[in-house]
Automatic annotation (TrEMBL):
<keyword id="KW-0862">Zinc</keyword>
<dbReference type="Pfam" id="PF10237">
    <property type="entry name" value="N6-adenineMlase"/>
</dbReference>
<dbReference type="InterPro" id="IPR010666">
    <property type="entry name" value="Znf_GRF"/>
</dbReference>
<dbReference type="GO" id="GO:0005730">
    <property type="term" value="C:nucleolus"/>
</dbReference>
<keyword id="KW-0808">Transferase</keyword>
<dbReference type="InterPro" id="IPR039846">
    <property type="entry name" value="ZCCHC4"/>
</dbReference>
<dbReference type="GO" id="GO:0008988">
    <property type="term" value="F:rRNA (adenine-N6-)-methyltransferase activity"/>
</dbReference>
<dbReference type="Pfam" id="PF06839">
    <property type="entry name" value="Zn_ribbon_GRF"/>
</dbReference>
<keyword id="KW-0863">Zinc-finger</keyword>
<dbReference type="InterPro" id="IPR037275">
    <property type="entry name" value="Znf_CTCHY_sf"/>
</dbReference>
<protein>
    <recommendedName>
        <fullName>CCHC-type domain-containing protein</fullName>
    </recommendedName>
</protein>
<keyword id="KW-0479">Metal-binding</keyword>
<dbReference type="GO" id="GO:0005737">
    <property type="term" value="C:cytoplasm"/>
</dbReference>
<keyword id="KW-0489">Methyltransferase</keyword>
<dbReference type="GO" id="GO:0008270">
    <property type="term" value="F:zinc ion binding"/>
</dbReference>
<keyword id="KW-0963">Cytoplasm</keyword>
<keyword id="KW-0949">S-adenosyl-L-methionine</keyword>
Amino acid sequence: MTKGGVQVIDKDIRNHPCCPHGPTILFSRKIEDENRRYFACSACRDRKQCNFFLWEEEKSKNKESFWATQNQKFVQGINHRKMFLNLNEIFSLGVSKRTFCSTCNFFCKDNEKHSSHTVVKSLNDLQLRHPSAVLPALDDSKREAQYHFSETSVTVIMDILKELGYKNVICIGTPRIHEYIQSNCNDMSSILLDIDKRFHNFFGPLQFCWYNMFNNHFFFKEAKDVFNDFLQSDGSTIWGRTELISATFNRINNQYQKLNQTKNTLPIFWIYPYFMEPQILNSLPKFSMLDYKVEYENHQSFQTNSGGRKQGSPIRIFTNVKPSLIKLPSSDYKHCEICKRWVANENKHCAACNSCTSKNGVTYVHCEECNRCVKPTWKHCQKCGRCAQVVHSCVKIKFFKECFQCKKSGHKKVDCPLLNPTQSQKRKKSAEANRKKKKK
C-alpha cells in the first residue's frame, strides 16, 4: 500500500520493535532517489503523539530495551479489575453523588479537587451503561477520531444481527453497538475492543479490551485471554469500523479457525466510506458492499437530514456475509429480484451491467463506450478514452501500485488477467467494439 509517497511493507509484525501502541509498522519512503525503510507507530500519524521512529538498519537490543521501559510506563496505573469494582460502587451511590471527571478520566468523589475541570454530574444508570453519550468524542484525525452511530443506524444494524441469528458480537471500535447489546439483548453477548482507554471506567474485564486494531495488539495479556475465550463462543461475528485493518481481520479469522478447529469463516461487518470499495476488495475479495447508508450523530456530513450531505451518508457496510441474507428497511430500500439483494431506492438495475450499480446515493447511467455505469455528472472524454468530470485534465491515469493477485505492478486486482482472463477479455472486446461503432 502506498500513500503520499510512503509505502507499507507487508511483513510479519510480530518481530517488529514495539512502541507504547504495540508492534510498529515497517514503512518505506523515497529519500534522494533511495528507498529507505523505517519503523513507526501503527496508531498515530503525528510524531508529537508517538515519537517512535527507527531506521531499519539501526535496530538494536539497547534501543529495544529503552522502548520496553517506555511501554511499561504507558500502561502503568491501569488496574481494570479495581476500576470495575469502583464502577459497581458508583452504581450503589445516589444519582446526585455520581460524578465523572473528563479531564482526569475517572469517577471522582471529591468535587472540590476537580472544580476547574470538565465534569459530568448526576449520572443516571442509563448514562453509566452508555459511556459514549457521556465521554467527549475524541476528534484527532491523526490518532483516535471517534464518530458514533445514530440511534437509527444502531437499530438497523441490530435488526440485521438478530435476523441473521448471531449471538456473540465482537465490536471493534463500535461502542454504540456494544452498549445496545449489553443493555437490551439478554440473548446476545458482546465484547468491545477499542483503543480508547477511558472505557476501562465503564465496562468490566469481560466486556472491554484495550486494543489497537491496526496491529491486532492487546495492551494487556489478560485482555487477550478474555478475547480468545470469547472467540470460542458459538456464533461470533465482528463489527469493525486499509490494508492494516484488513490484515487484522484476517489474523482474527485465522485465530478463530484455529481455536475452534473449524474451516468456517468468521462473519465480519466493516463500516467504511463507499469510495474505499476498490481498496477493501483488493485486500478482501470475498467482501461485498451493502447499500445501507450508516449515519453518525456527531458528524454532519455522515447524516441524511437537511444539514447533511445531499446524497445521504457516504458510509457503507462491507461484509463477507451473503447480501441476499441481509434485509434493509423497506422505507428507503427495495429488493432487487434479479440481484437477489436489498438496494437503495435510487439504485436502478442496469441490464447491460446485469447489476444494481449506484454507489454514492444517486442513480448511475450506463456509458456504452466504457461499458460500465458512471455518475450522472460524468461525461465520456474521447481523448482520455474514459468517463470523467466535465472539467478535468486529459491525462491518462496510470496505476503504479502492486496487484494483490499476481503481485505485479501496473494494474489492480479487479483487472488482473490471472484472476478471470475470460471476463477481462470480454470486457475489453466489448469496449473496443463500442468505440468502433462510435467512429462509424
